[in-house]
Amino acid sequence: QSALTQPASVSGSPGQSITISCTGTSGDVGDYNYVSWYQQHPGKAPKVMIYEVSNRPSGVSNRFSGSKSGNTASLTISGLQAEDEADYYCSSYTSDNTLVFGGGTKLTVL
Amino acid sequence: QVQLVQSGAEVEKPGASVKVSCKTSGYTFTDSYIYWVRQAPGQGLEWMGRINPNSGGTNYAQKFYGWVTMTRDMSISTAYMELRRLRSDDTAVYYCAREGGGSYYFDYWGQGTLVTVSS
Question: How many helices (H) and strands (E) does chain B have?
Fold first, then answer.
């Protein structure tokens, strides 16, 4: 199973909105609503920000939102803050009954 | 509160095996799958596989078939991941994580275990 495709980096200024894409295939993102997003700060374990495409766990800011269209899922962060600077990974369930991650996106807050 | 506490860092020689433990608490161990994910230095996350703590059934990423074994000990609510025939490119932080709500995502993570493979 090939990794999902994410941009290597995105950037934005405080207060702006950014969107990170996650492109898969009909065997993963396109066929299942089991897409999740993780935030990882340096030296820390990942933290789930979105699950099942657009659900936010309790405690996660409503500035984080998720969506999906066809084979591409997206994570949008609105009202960008300095503490949002981190690496972000998407993940999807696949038709092989496995999971696959995206390559990760480094978010820089300018 | 839910906690996943992993064993400490390991240094192994090429060709050796390593076994990492993941002790859970704060929930019913048999209610949720445990996943294993690794991250090489400066690299992204890689899904290795998962174990059903209730049945012991496993799913592995194809890359790791015949090379990794995931087990559990229900009596102490602990999951294990053993990787054999280690190579230098197996140097990574290995994480265990709990599946959330049966929906193929990870709601709680261990702190990670650094495994260094070096001669």
Answer: 0, 11
pLDDT for B18: 98
Shortest alpha-carbon distance between residue A101 and chain B (Å): 6
Tens-place pLDDT, residues A52-92:
999 999 999 999 999 999 999 999 999 999 999 999 999 99
- For residue A42, count other CB atoms closer than 10 A to its CB: 7
Q: What is the mean pLDDT of residues B49-57?
A: 96
Cα(A62)–Cα(A65) distance, integer angstroms: 7
A46 with B104: Cβ contact below 8 A: no
User: Which residue is it, tokens 């495709």?
Assistant: A5
pLDDT (mean) for A7-26: 96
- Is residue A101 within 8 Å of residue A48, measured between CB atoms? no
What does the pLDDT average to over B60-80? 96
Is there a contact between A3 and B44 if contact means CB atoms under 8 Å apart? yes
B47, B95, B111 member nearest A100 (Cβ): B47
Q: What are phi and psi of B72, to 5 degrees?
A: -150, 160
Q: Are A75 and A20 in contact (CB under 8 A)?
A: yes
Euclidean distance between CA atoms B22 and A69, whole angstroms: 36
Q: Rg of the Cα trace of chain A?
A: 13
pLDDT at A1 over 70: no
- Lookup result for tokens 């959330």: B100
